[in-house]
Structure of LuxR family transcriptional regulator:
Amino acid sequence: MRINQSAGKSALLLPQDKNNAAEPIVIVVDDDAAVREGLSELILSAGFQPVSFASTQEVLNAVDILDSPGCLILDVHMPGASGLHLQHRLAESGIAKPIIFLTGHGNIPMTVQAMKAGAVDFLTKPVSDQTLLDAVIAAIALDGARRAEAIIVKRNLERLGTLTHREREILREVVTRGRLNKQIAFDLGISEVTVKLHRANVMRKMEVRSIGELIRAWETLPPTMRESGGPGI
């Protein structure tokens, strides 16, 4: 699939149908049209879908593309906002898109800044095709892992939301303190039978079969929620 490219505008290589919508998209951001074209051809040859932009602002204007699976290949020095600035903006917006920096003018402080901010790699032009593709594959794998984790977190938050206040109290006693039914009953001033009933409800609503699974589900929740005990605890 080829789309004409004009000076100052991005060349978009987008999926042609909905069946391709979930395929990894590699977003290339570079003000050099020749670089964008070369990287797009390389990415296509590796079986991934390229989308290219000439500036960081164009990426921010097309924010929907950032929701798709994949990664970013960013030049550092471009007219307007730099690639490092875009990395910062995305982080501020909570967009954990894996980023590979590819630049002809890198230095050690710049590399350290980018890597500390979560970049997958910081490569200097010229770079071999295989080195770049290895970085892209690693970035896409990282994105896939993050997305899978996000699905699990969302699912467990939804399940947590079905618990009553008392069930959440008992959940917290079990997973954070390892308390036995009789200990929980004494602490809460209720019968051990009632604790058993609530605990069974917790297991059923959280869709787990063992305390180990319950603890693992709890540990997927955001740290701030675990520390506070979650809503209503």
Q: What stands out?
A: The two ends are 54 Å apart (CA to CA).
